[in-house]
């Protein structure tokens, strides 16, 4: 895979690459943006080291790839599009501690997310990513046919109610099998973090099918695992990946910032089709 301005070193045959040759703390030129768009399409999640960002520069970076989408939980006072992610000895829950895609409870889920970490535990705190292309491709033809045309409800209370039980969270319906708007590939689009049930199935059958699919996406053959360094960045395509923040470092501190990027116009209609 040839790029003009960057180098990509794949982590696995199916998902993930380390990107070098670009300074994310500076404004990007059109050729760099085009290369990074292509790298996301090629690898689904891309990683960078030694990129000391702050909320303002992280926001500027995200805006190179689209409008920023507000999160269901509050952002920073001065930068409402930027969400602080912080875990320490007082944490009872951490963001992303089960497999999920970000904000699929929204009518139009984000195209992607960019996470920057500045403070890390002495050991642990990795993030695992799973390819939903690979997950879909590994299903039998009979299971693919069975799932085609089904829709599922994604409820924000499942993911965020533990942080604020009184909050009002979005609920949306999406197809169980989605077509990626850029690559045209089919992906599995249900996740344990947000999906409550499949609409066209009775409750017991819906739960059994979802339990199977949740186990299926955790297959190590679909995954890469990223070991963070101070000032590392992860940029993932939310439409074709799931991820898991591995909370194995309690009571140590893990802290950084994240932005979400809106999907391309019209995707809410495509999802509802």
TrEMBL record:
One example GO MF annotation: taurine dioxygenase activity
Biological process annotations from GO: sulfur compound metabolic process
Stored Pfam families: TauD
InterPro entries (UniProt xref): AtsK-like, TauD-like_sf, TauD/TfdA-like
Cellular component, GO annotation: cytoplasm
Top-level taxon: Bacteria
Keywords: Dioxygenase, Iron, Metal-binding, Oxidoreductase
Family statement drawn from the similarity comment of this UniProt entry: Belongs to the TfdA dioxygenase family.
Protein name as catalogued: Taurine dioxygenase
Source organism of the structure: Sphingomonas turrisvirgatae
